[in-house]
Amino acid sequence: MARRGYFSIYGGTIVTAADERFQQALGHVAAVQAVLRQLPGQPWVGYFDRIAASLTSGDVEASVRARDAIPYAGMGAFGDFLEAYPQKALHWNAIDRIIGALKVQARYGDPRS
C-alpha cells in the first residue's frame, strides 16, 4: 500500500508524514512496553508486541486490528493500569490517536488527520 502524506527532508532522506507517525507511535509503544515488562505476569505485553510489529512493518490495517484488540480504559484491569501509571496513559492515548490518524490517511487519503 502506498503511503501518502506531506514530505519533509531529514538528513537528505525524504520522509512522509506517515513514516513520521509510525516512528512516533513506536516510541510510545516502547515506553508502555518498558513498564508492562516489569509487571508480574507481564500483562498486555503481547498486545503491544503485535502493535510494534505491525508499525515496524508499516501495515496500517494490522496496526488498527492490534490496537482495537486491547481493552479500553473503561474495561477492567487495563483501566486500572492506566490509572496507576498516568504517564503511560498519555502514551496509550498518543498510540490510539496516531494509529487512528494513520487509518484515516490510509483509507481516505487525508494526511491532515
Explain briefly what this protein structure is:
Helix content is 65%, strand content 7%.
Q: Over all CA atoms, what is the radius of gyration?
A: 15 Å
Structural class: mainly alpha
Strand order of the largest sheet: 1-2
Query: Mean of the pLDDT scores?
Result: 83
Can you give a write-up of this model?
Strands 1-2 form a two-stranded antiparallel sheet. It contains 5 helices and 2 strands, in the order ββααααα. It starts with 6 loop residues before the first strand and ends in a 5-residue tail after the last helix. The protein is mainly alpha-helical and 113 residues long. Helix 2 packs antiparallel against helix 3 (60-69) and helix 4 crosses helix 5 (86-108). Helices cover 65% and strands 7% of the residues.
Question: Notable features of this structure?
Answer:
113 residues; two-stranded antiparallel sheet; 7% strand
Topology:
Layout: E1 7-10, E2 13-16, H1 17-36, H2 45-57, H3 60-69, H4 77-84, H5 86-108
Antiparallel strand pairs: 1-2
